[in-house]
Sequence to fold (290 residues):
Amino acid sequence: MSTVPKGDYDGIRAEVKKILKRPGYDDGSIGPVLVRLAWHASGTYSAKEKNGGSNGAGMRFAPEASDGANAGLEHAREFIDPIHKANPWISYADLWTLAGATAVEAMGGPKIPWKPGRTDFQSEVAATEYRGNIDNRLPDAALGAQHIRDIFYRMGFNDQEIVALSGAHNLGRCHSDRSGFDGPWVVNPIRFSNQYFKLLLTRKWVPRQWDGPFQYEAIVAGTRLMMLPTDIALIEDPEFRPWVEKYAADQQLLFKDFAAAFGKLLELGVDRDGTGVAHLVKGGGCPFAA
Ligand code: HIF
Fold:
């Protein structure tokens, strides 16, 4: 791990790229779990309550650290920690979001717009005081279209952005010891593409017969692939489905729309002052609201 000059975010991107390959871990890359870390750090945002989001890097502390929805992300945080140790000038909140953006790009996806400026909570006590109540903000994969809308409308996304974001399930896999679900969505889960949308439309997804939670499966090229109930909701819902069809047919459109939507996700609740610093505010609100 190298030390890069303060403020050299491209240098940090290069450090992230160096650690992505990890033989023996999942499909050989920690990229997907870093994308999930960036999303779960950001996806607690509420546009109405003006709290949650990546600023503060609250997942280092209870209750986010022990939230069942974040199971497995302790590995992502451990993988990335040496970069912070070598470069303590970068906030964890910036590092986690930048690592997710970098991982998408390194796995063949689009360049995600990203800006620095996030500030970390200095302690668990500070996190409690500043964060506000952000319990139960992340989605439940066992539910359907209404739940997806409740969660993502709360963050300020529309139907098209929800489907574009969902392209991230082209990456990585479910782990029975984390979420309880099991398996990857696509045959090559460490390469970003529009395969997820193509497979949603072209395969016959049937309930998996097993002891685990209800999920769908299809065997593709000898590999057992999976879809969550929330993934299948995208093809069953009449407003979501046309976007699945568009992204299945046009990878370039997906890349453009995914970059915009994922970039927006990473920015939620990050309110910078004139110098580019996103300060922390008690209750997690916007510093400029008062
Ligand atoms: Fe995921 N997601 N996600 N997700 N997710 C899992 C894994 C990943 C949902 C559920 C799950 C998004 C939305 C939703 C990634 C990225 C994104 C897992 C498996 C579940 C259950 C966790 C495990 O067992 O390890 C639900 C219900 C969502 C709302 C519809 C985002 C759009 C798709 C926002 C997003 O970017 C990634 C990447 C992974 C793979 C992690 C890994 O360790 O490989």
Remarks:
- Residues 32-33, 35-36, 39, 72, 139, 141, 148, 165-166, 168-169, 171-175, 178-179, 181, 228, 230 surround FE(III)-(4-mesoporphyrinone) (CB under 6 Å).
- Residues 251-267 form the longest helix (17 residues).
